[in-house]
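Lab notebook, bench 4. We co-purified these components, and the gel suggests they stay together. Before we commit to crystallization screens, I want a quick structural picture of the whole thing.
Request: model the full complex, all chains together.
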Amino acid sequence: VIESKREAVRERILEGTSRAICAAGVRRTSVEDVALESGCSRATIYRHFPGGRDELLDALVAFEHRRFFVQLGAAVADAETLEEVMVRGLLEAHRALGELEVLQIVLREQPEVLEPSLMRTSQSTLDLVADFLAPFLAKDGIDEGPGARRSARFLARMVLSYISSPGRWDLTDPEEVRRLVECELMASVRGAAR
Amino acid sequence: VIAETVELSGANRERVVAAAIDCIAARGLRRTTVEEIAAAAGVSRATLYRSFPGGRETILGAVVDAEIAGLLGSLEAVVAGAADLRATLVAGIAEAARFVATDPVIEQLLFEDPAVVLTHLEFEEMDRTLATASGLLQPYLARHLDAEAALRAGEWATRVVLSFLLVPDDEVDLLDRADVEQLVDERVLPGIVALSSDR
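Here is the predicted assembly.
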């Protein structure tokens, strides 16, 4: 109970940080602004984030990152097939990322805050996405065991690559996303299954 | 006179970037100062700041650009001699991994200040890197594929390589030829073949 209360306060502070940044930008957001937005005292903020402003920014990026993938997972969890989960996942991720205003602001104003945190979280994000995709691979008849695990990890790598940088693909166009999933992603695991 | 000034500042930029690369390779990233770079380039601090108003950070950005250009140049050299699509992919991926593993500056950057490199490899910047790499690889892949499929194939292969370089995998060692061949046969080629036959 204490732990979940602690989590709730942290979350409230980070939500407040996010609102403050969206209102004023990264550089002009102080611990006082976060206190005001979150309705917590400065003392409470420093108790939860002893590193102050820097630690808040770092924690915010990790928090938004995690929330992004949790919501993405929830939005596509009812998909029937591996193909469907990837098509819907890419469309939804692309849309949601565009709407993640606070991340765009941090990226524009202070990308150096974002990068180390992405670097640290990249391996765990890969595991998260691979674990999410694994049951769909099994449902699709791609053998279980180490081969399926490797395939899930490979798909997770490529899905993450497209989410962060669409390159030549228009991820707002369902037809194009379907072609990408069918011809690149699905082909790359069917090849391995043979 | 303006053209001359621009040209001169271009030459200065190149000298500063080359000097920065030498300094970083010799002493590491953290111990390389703007003063040392200016001295090694044989230009004054004022001249250096005229070419790089942002100072150290913009010099490092230009160093990363130069390293990416160097990597693409060495890629071009190996894929030019490859006989078929599979050989092109295997040679290109192996060379990219070798270059990153042995280039002293990339190693220093990744080890000491990954943010400098990563800002080039995330989001819009990554899109630019993908476009540059796939544009450069296109003529070589177009020997075996149609023009559009060659662009897509270059991007696909570049994504695969960057993913394994940035987030290493215990089971896939891109410095090992057999691992590269397996990756190409199992993952990279099937994606290219399916896409180019989907017309």
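The longest helix of chain B spans residues 2-27. Worth comparing against the SEC data before the next meeting. The interface with chain A takes residues 114-115, 118-119, 122-124, 126-127, 130-131, 134, 151-152, 155-156, 159-160, 162-164, 166-167, 169, 171, 185-191, 193-195, 198 of chain B (CB under 8 Å).
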